[in-house]
Amino acid sequence: xxxxVLRYWEGRFPQLKPVQRAGNRRYYRPEDMALIRRIDxxxxxxxxxxxxxxxxxxxxxxxxxxxxxxxxxxxxxxVEGLAWDDRAER
Length: 90
Hints:
This protein is mainly alpha-helical and 90 residues long. The protein is built from 4 helices and 2 strands, in the order αββααα.
């Protein structure tokens, strides 16, 4: 990954926070690398915009931090799936 791309992503995605060492060198931990790979996949393979990835990561962090949000997300997915199934049967 190009250095300028990583710096840009650090500014756009607050979840990406590498450890800064002496001389302002950055150390990317395994969880940082996993996030970088995920951002890259969403942007360059799945066609998301930067704003779309930001919204996706924000919503996932809200769901992860709020058990009730997890249940609401499951409920919404089930409702959406049932509605799709009803449309497919017609």
